[in-house]
Design brief:
By secondary structure, the chain is of the alpha/beta class. It is 31% helix and 25% strand. The protein folds into two domains: 4-127, Tetrapyrrole methylase, N-terminal domain (Cobalt-precorrin-4 Transmethylase, domain 1); 132-230, Tetrapyrrole methylase, C-terminal domain (Methyltransferase, Cobalt-precorrin-4 Transmethylase, Domain 2, 2-Layer Sandwich), CATH 3.30.950.
């Protein structure tokens, strides 16, 4: 009998935000898999595994998926191809495997790349997690939408004109993947008159979290940061 493949949402960083269901899966599975950033040829610590660490029970077989954070997706695709082969081998022996994802596994989550490779080969259970979007809004105490309002989720890696049109079309927007794109977002929000009421949130839910008016945001943001803007 094939094992179960779990896509496990672990929340935005605070281990206390791991759901009861996710914690139970972490304690029970034989195998865990997780992405770790690849830097200078070596894997750096995995954020997802660090979130899971307090909830792991017993010895686990671990599959590290080293991903270089590059604009070129090809190396990452090869890493997921290899990881899918390893995961499938464990599933075929009847072992359950949990793929660990910070946030929610299907909102910019790494699990979706494993899912597309193994869908139909085993039973798959996706366990939703507290998303970075929800954590950022909570950190800023910022209501995003109500009643018939709309929310746009916009990656900052898009061309400037596309970012502008997507934000302009919605009542509120969450800008993901900020990183080196801060200057571009500042230009867009300035042109749209959306600087007031916008917030910069960094590492939501963690002890080192920062929430700033967008006008005070740093010029270079870490990967785990977000911009929230609502019409005023």
């Amino acid at each position: 009998m094939s094992g179960i493949l779990y896509g496990l949402g672990l929340g935005p960083g605070d281990p206390d935000l791991v759901t009861i269901k996710a914690a139970a899966v972490l304690a029970a599975v034989e195998v865990i898999a997780y992405v770790a950033p690849l830097k200078e040829g070596a894997s750096a610590p995995s954020f997802a595994r660090a979130i899971a660490a307090p909830h792991l029970g017993g010895d686990k077989t671990e599959i590290c998926i080293p991903i270089a954070m590059l604009d070129d997706p090809e190396p990452g695709q090869r890493a997921y191809d290899q990881a899918a082969i390893q995961i499938a081998e464990h599933l075929q022996t009847g072992q359950d495997v949990a793929v660990l994802c910070e946030g929610d596994p299907l909102l910019y989550g790494s699990f979706m790349y494993v899912l597309e490779r193994l869908k139909g080969t085993a039973k798959i259970v996706t366990v939703p997690g507290v998303s970075s979007l929800g954590a950022a809004a909570a950190a800023a105490n910022l209501p995003l939408v109500s009643r018939s309002q709309s929310l746009a989720i916009v990656p900052a890696t898009l061309p400037e004109a596309e970012i502008k049109s997507r934000i302009q079309a919605a009542d509120s927007a969450a800008v993901f993947k900020v990183g080196r794109n801060m200057a571009k977002i500042k230009r867009v929000l300035g042109q749209l008159g959306r600087m007031d009421g916008a917030f910069y949130i960094e590492r939501a839910s963690l002890p080192e979290a920062r929430v700033l008016p967008f006008a005070d945001a740093p010029d270079d943001a870490p990967y785990f940061s977000m911009i929230l803007t609502t019409e005023t």
